[in-house]
Specification:
The protein is α+β, with helices and mostly antiparallel strands. It is 29% helix and 19% strand. The chain folds into 4 domains: 4-130, Alpha-Beta Complex (Sulfite Reductase Hemoprotein, domain 2), CATH 3.90.480; 151-308, Sulfite Reductase Hemoprotein, domain 1 (2-Layer Sandwich), CATH 3.30.413.10; 333-401, Alpha-Beta Plaits (2-Layer Sandwich); 404-547, Sulfite Reductase Hemoprotein, domain 1 (2-Layer Sandwich), CATH 3.30.413.10. It is globular.
């Protein structure tokens, strides 16, 4: 029997959902949706990037935008910032971030919160006039296409821009493929840095070469079935297929169609593409692709460049690029400048000012990364000094601290109904505390610390040096917010996922545990050893001892059962609170 979500989608999904959203908006907004039909319509709304916020925030919506591989063309960031300023304001201010801001996501896109349904037509009008849209930004569909945010600007082994654009224009806009069994993530890398993180996508294209008829041909190797959620992470498996650039789209489309046609629509906790790939196996998938979906003869995999991958690979800074923060060279002789936005939250006025900088010092284009950061491109040598001296870059520096540089955080209980803990405000406070209370060796340029509010792992804790996942624990007889703490994750040539070293640590004791661990790293590491390398060389038992929870002077608000004080919540527990300890919370990141 099909899952109930399939029944909710039946009869209306994909492009036609838009007309219903507009109709509800024009006839009273939230109140126009019949109460007994809200679950159905909220499920359908997600296709157009519109998510009803959690219980206690009735009538407010989040909108996720979509922009393939993080490219915001001139004026698009400014328009998004203006929409956030004018429409994305809640009933009260967030005590850490104020009111009216945008969230940068781990799939190179943007989220807006506190929107009211009756404002959506005008919001769409403003955004779409600048070429920004929200179609296929949520729900059971192909999500934002990930790629190297600097494709076309930085050096690439094989050009990825045309493939990324074709996925966006022809595949994601095909309404016949809008209703997938579950969300589906696509990525393509043309560089040898590995910054699209293809190993954690449902299908990823990686640069490779292949000897064909005595000629060395450039193209892509294909991997499928990567993902992180539910404490069941999978690194994407080689499909043993090499494709020339001109054939890559057909293979990508073929696997999307195969999963659309044969994917599990009964069990939503087991119907992501990574489980499908595991169940079918590479040989059967490859054979079915060849027989039913691909018109040319597929070649077996070529030589890849994974041994050169440095992006979040746990390698020393001198080995190469591990993120897109800082000043870097473009292939045309100009520069890009990547800024650090801790936890990805950018006030609307700052987003508008950043767009002004992009116009003044660059081409106006801004690129977004998979680490929740913006990059200004096309900056001439003679303009670099002036840009780096701008006051806003003191807040979002191109040379941040190791903690700020490595930080990511998901939405958390602030808006997400399945989260168990507050995330962004707490992480921002922890970063300031670590800056003041933890000394690292001078050659340690980054500590990748990722925070997810639940096991869905939208904050990618599984791929961090130090991964935090929200939990609950009892302390002094009361239920409080807590973390599970893991270490040693990362992608690169051989992706590894964190090993848990402490579980259910009360939130006021977790910073002390992390400080103790980092002090042990500083004291016991070999010269030049990165955190991931040190973890691999240190036994689990010793790591557990190093990561000893401890109360400190860290101020830990929002300890009591995930109910913050600055905006209303329903009295009942969050949906995730009722999920069994070993169960995966449902994910719709």
């Amino acid at each position: 029997m099909a899952h109930k979500k399939e029944a909710l989608k039946e009869g209306c999904y994909g492009d036609e959902v838009r007309e219903h959203i507009l109709e509800f908006a024009e006839n009273g907004g939230y109140e126009a949706i019949p109460e007994d039909e809200r679950e159905k319509w909220f499920t359908r709304f997600k296709f157009w990037g519109l998510f009803h916020q959690r219980s206690g925030q009735e009538s407010y919506f989040m909108m996720r935008l979509t922009n393939a591989s993080g490219i915001l063309e001139p004026d698009q960031l400014r328009t998004i910032g203006e929409v956030a300023r004018d429409y994305a304001t809640g009933p009260v201010e967030n005590p850490e971030f104020g009111n009216g801001w945008i969230d940068l996501t781990t799939r190179q896109s943007v989220q807006l919160h506190w929107l009211e349904l009756e404002d959506v037509p005008e919001i769409w009008k403003k955004l779409e006039s600048a070429g920004v849209h929200s179609r296929s930004a949520g729900g059971d569909t192909m999500r934002n296409i990930s790629g190297c945010p600097l494709h076309g600007k930085a050096e690439e082994f094989v050009e990825s821009g045309p493939l990324l654009e074709r996925f966006e224009e022809e595949l994601r806009k095909d309404d016949a493929l809008s209703n997938m069994p579950r969300k589906f993530n696509i990525s393509a890398s043309g560089c040898t840095v590995g910054c699209a993180q293809d190993s954690i996508n449902d299908i990823g294209f990686e640069p490779a070469t292949k000897e064909v008829d005595g000629e060395t041909v450039k193209g892509f190797n294909v991997r499928i079935g990567g993902g992180l959620g539910g404490r069941q992470p999978r690194a994407a498996t080689p499909l043993d297929v090499f494709v020339r650039p001109e054939n890559a789209y057909e293979v990508g489309r073929g696997f999307v169609e195969l999963y659309h046609d044969y994917g599990n629509r009964q069990n939503r906790s087991k119907n992501r593409a990574r489980f499908f790939a595991e169940d079918w196996g590479m040989e059967k998938i490859r054979e079915t692709l060849q027989e039913e979906y691909v018109d040319f003869e597929m070649l077996r995999a070529g030589e890849d460049y994974r041994e050169e991958y440095t992006y979040n690979a746990g390698r020393p800074v001198e080995d190469g690029q591990h993120d897109h923060v800082g000043v870097g060279d473009q292939k045309d002789g100009q520069n890009y400048v990547g800024l650090s936005v801790p936890v990805g939250r950018l006030p609307a006025e700052d987003a508008i000012e950043l767009a002004d900088y992009a116009d003044e010092y660059g081409s106006g284009e801004v690129r977004l990364t998979r680490r929740q950061n913006p990059v200004i491109v096309d900056v001439a040598d003679e303009d670099l000094e002036a840009l780096l001296a701008e006051p806003l870059l003191e807040e979002y520096p191109a040379e941040p601290s190791p903690f700020e540089r490595g930080a990511m955080a998901c939405t958390g209980t602030e808006f997400c109904s399945i989260a168990l803990t507050e995330t962004k405000g707490r992480m921002a406070r922890m970063l300031r505390w670590f800056n003041k209370n933890v000394d690292l060796p001078d050659d340690v340029g980054k500590i990748k610390m990722h925070y997810s509010g639940c096991t869905a792992d939208c904050g990618q804790a599984m791929t961090a040096d130090i991964g935090l996942q929200g939990m609950r624990a009892r302390k002094n007889g009361e239920m409080v917010e807590a973390f599970d703490i893991g270490v040693g994750g990362g992608v690169g040539e051989e992706p590894s996922f964190i090993e848990w070293v402490q579980q259910r640590v009360p939130a006021d004791e977790a910073p002390g545990a992390i400080r103790n661990l980092l002090q042990a790293y500083a004291a016991h590491r070999s010269e030049g050893q990165t955190f991931r390398q040190w973890v691999e060389a240190t036994g689990t038992e010793q790591l557990v001892e190093f990561c000893e929870p401890e109360e400190t002077n860290f101020e830990a608000p929002y300890m009591a059962d995930a109910k913050q004080s600055w905006y209303p919540f329903a009295e009942s527990e969050s949906a995730a609170a009722a999920v069994g300890e070993e169960s995966a919370a449902p994910s719709d990141d």
